[in-house]
Amino acid sequence: MTSSTPRRPGPIALAALAIWIGLLALISYWMAGESYRWLPVQASNAAPLVDGLFSFETGVGTFVFLGVVSVMGWVMLVHRAEKYDESDAEPIEGNTKLEVIWTAIPFVLVMAIAWYAIQINTELGVLGPMEHIHLRNPQEQQGGYPGGRLPVEQVEVIARQWSWEFRYPGQHVSSTELHLELNRPITFRLVSEDVLHGFFIPAFRLKQDVIPGRAIDFSLTPTRLGRYRLRDSQFSGTWFAANQADVVVETADDHALWLKQAAAAPLQSGLSVAAAEYTEQQTNPRGGWPTVVPAPPPQVNVPGSSTLPHDA
């Protein structure tokens, strides 16, 4: 029995392979650019960084997917058995060069993604570091600042089952609709009154768990005028999907006017879809699973609206 020496690919085959790899690279580059269109509008200084990482990962993922599918298609078309051939395949020893190649390529891709992700995470930390504060300390429970007052640029975000409340320090203003000034750095102080919630504003690319017993500070800068949507990204009970609020980014003059008008407005019940639906269910029982009684709507100066159109 003689062993046959495998043929080396010729110049034409190598040229065709190079052209095919180049075509896959072009398609991957195009997909990376198209991925920006899949995301909501960019409304914070963190959004371009996060979107850039997502675009890079989309391009790499597209190249890997098309490369694997190409190899599968080549094997099925060129190396398939003849019709009615039911014999066993020829045993082949391992190919050291091939094993090195298919080990090195994934390693390089994974390291590139990890390096890029670390760079983005570092830049996000420079924009506004996230800090966890235990609320067992009385001073920390008041924010850890002199006199228990938050700095002017900070907004306290209170999550509960199932409504959001926003308090603006120094203004004695509270609302169930978040108002922010354009291009002004803002720090959110996130606290929960009951269970785990998720503070998620897709247009800001901000998603942060709100953990009971902790105050979490997170900073960024709104960069686009408009009305956006805040959602609860964590399952916190029956009405967690309805636990939403509008986020309004406005000019400095409009924001100052809004704060002035809000400070003069009397306290009233804030928006709470859960409380309204629960009250309606108690009036007209329809059966169903028992649920946690929603917390009463917070008393705020500005309830806002849940029916206005928003950008994202």
Automatic annotation (TrEMBL):
Function: Subunits I and II form the functional core of the enzyme complex. Electrons originating in cytochrome c are transferred via heme a and Cu(A) to the binuclear center formed by heme a3 and Cu(B).
InterPro entries: CcO_II (IPR045187), CcO_II-like_C (IPR002429), Cupredoxin (IPR008972), Cyt_c_oxidase_su2_TM_dom (IPR011759), Cyt_c_oxidase_su2_TM_sf (IPR036257)
Keyword Zinc-finger attached: no
Full protein name: Cytochrome c oxidase subunit 2
Entry keyword set: Copper, Electron transport, Membrane, Metal-binding, Respiratory chain, Translocase, Transmembrane, Transmembrane helix, Transport
Topology class, membrane: Multi-pass membrane protein
Transmembrane segments: 12-32, 52-77, 98-118
Signal peptide segment: none
Sequence ranges assigned to domain Cytochrome oxidase subunit II copper A binding in this UniProt record: 150-261
Reactions performed catalytically: 4 Fe(II)-[cytochrome c] + O2 + 8 H(+)(in) = 4 Fe(III)-[cytochrome c] + 2 H2O + 4 H(+)(out)
Cell compartments where the protein resides: Cell membrane; Membrane
Domain Cytochrome oxidase subunit II transmembrane region profile: 33-128
Cofactor: Cu cation
Broad enzyme group: translocase
